[in-house]
Amino acid sequence: MLCSVLIWLENTVLSTALETLADPDRGLGADPGRLQWATGAYTLAFATLMFTAGALGDRFGHRTVFSGGLVVFAGSSLWAAYAGDADQLIAARAAMGVGSALITPAMMAILMWTFTGPARAAAVGVFSTSAGVGMAVGPVLAGFLLDHFWWGSVFLVNVPVAAAALVGLAVLVPNFRSPVPRTLDPAGMLLSVSGLSVLTYGLIRAGQVAVWSRTDVWAPIVAGLVLLAVFVLVELRVEVPGFDPRLFARRAFGGGNAALGLLLFGVAAITFSNAFYLQGALGFSPMKAGLANIPTALGALVGAPLASRLVRRLPLRVVTVPALTVAALSMGGYAFLGLQTPLVLIEILLLLQGLSVGMVIGPVTAALISDLPLEQAGAGSAVTNTVRQTGSVMGIAVGGTIMSIVYRRAMEPSLEGVPGPVREQARVSAEQARHVAATTHRPALARAADDAFVHALHVAAGWVAAIALLGAVVLLITLPAGGKERGPAPEPDQEGARGSGARSAV
User: Fold this and answer.
1) From CA 336, how far away is CA 329, in angstroms rounded?
2) Where are the extended beta strands (E) located within 28-69?
3) Which of 7-16, 58-67, 482-491 has the lowest mean pLDDT?
């Protein structure tokens, strides 16, 4: 739970710090493309190394891999805190993603080995509340740190938490390992990393040049898609793949993962935009923006246990399809926000979004993992987490690119007659436009940047809502209409556990 909170804490902390990192004086002066990479590099490494980390846990023990991931995460957090420029921050964030990838499959595998029967579903539901805790603490903590210290403090705070978690692992957690270790899959890892990286580069590059027809945009996109197709074909031919596409043959498993991927696409895209809306367009301080995001976390904290209770009485589809629909519509609600929108309306929208997202992620994840045999729990967890993180990567890349393209086109009429250096800086982003407007005493330029940003937010919100709604359609089609009776989950093979014969209590 502590490590899961740490990972969610890091995700929300960065979103609060984006506006500061874009500022040339208080931060690194990072442009939108580099900020997309600072966010996406972490998620990209997280997504593509997840199934490899699961196989390492099966082979060497999940506690061992878990501990190694924490060391990597803490070390790279220290690196990120003292990064000298945006490129160093991107590299440090990618290393943090490696640490998170080693941690996450081990968390779920240890959970599955520790609990059996009905207690397992309850434990997964409780475990899901860690997302809400991290989402609640992260923005407020980041706001406090950014208001009182330099931007690197938001990464430095990870180090003592990781140290405490390492002590807890050594004292409380047995070194569970699978009795039948999965083989490592270097070819699959290389193809997935290169495919997603190249695809993401092409998508982000489109936002930097504001056109899709250039070779340096469409060629990486096509190459990335081809590499990912080859990756799937290779995994299908491997007897024991790290990422098992065969699991998608289970209709509910495949559909549920696709829906979660589309939902996380929307969440990542709208969260990225919201950070700049609150602090940039509305001028909130980091602390005020952090406090403004609390309703999202509270909604998630309420939504996850509420959905867990509801699915005991109602079919999963009846609970999650309406919830995912509401989540998509709440993302579309950003199309109605403006520079004069009352804060109470923004808070209601964020509360609704957090509640509905929490009601989907917890029960769907629990159903997907619980439906698999114990020996496939590690592989299934890796697939589920990889799909979710891939959805987040694509959400940041596509959502940020739509925002950049629409902003530049909306800003062009206001740049006529503006000196060349000022014009080029104002084209980069609304943050850069506000900065150059302040230094050159052009208040009209700052107002134009705010208007162009809000227009871009409206357009992006429409696309994001449509994609998230597609996830609700997928759930409606693939989940069973009625309840499904499950037999008791198989007991874990304690012969395969190392470190302690007794189960740890949580």
Assistant:
1) 11
2) none
3) 482-491
| End-to-end alpha carbon distance in the chain | 9
Query: Token pair 């159903």 is at which residue?
Result: 367
Using one digit for the tens of pLDDT, what is the confidence trace for 305-317? 888 888 888 888 8
Quote the CA–CA distance of 235 and 255 in Å, as a whole number: 19
Q: Looking at per-residue confidence, does 463 or 140 come out higher?
A: 463
Q: How remote is the C-alpha of 296 from its chain's centroid?
A: 15
What is the Cα–Cα distance from 236 to 330, expressed in whole angstroms?
Answer: 38
> In which element (H, E) is residue 307 found?
helix 294-313
Q: Whole-angstrom Cα distance, residue 419 to residue 417?
A: 6
Range of the domain at 212: 186-237
| Closest residue by Cα to residue 276 from 2, 14, 16 | 16
Tell me the pLDDT tens digit for each residue of 367-381: 777 666 665 656 666
> Do 197 and 167 have their domain in common?
no
Closest listed residue to residue 300, CA positions, set 262, 350, 256, 365: 350
500 within some domain: no
> What is the predicted pLDDT for the residue at 460?
93
Nearest to 12, CA basis, from 166, 148, 146, 201: 146
> How far apart (Å, rounded) are the C-alpha atoms in residues 235 and 245?
7
Question: DSSP characters for 368-397?
Answer: HHHTS-GGGHHHHHHHHHHHHHHHHHHHHH
110-140 core/surface letters (b: 16 or more CB in 10 A; e: else): bbbbbbbeeebbebbbbbbbbbbbbbbbbbb
User: What CATH number is given to the structural domain containing 47?
Assistant: 1.20.1250.20
Tell me how far apart the alpha carbons of residues 104 and 97 are, in angstroms, rounded to a whole number.
10
Could you tell me if residue 90 is inside a domain? yes
301 and 390 share one domain: yes
How many structural domains is the chain composed of? 2
DSSP one-letter code for 240: S
pLDDT tens, residue by residue, 157-180: 889 888 888 898 888 887 877 666
pTM: 0.80
Which among 431, 160, 93, 151 has a CA at the least distance from the CA of 273?
Answer: 431
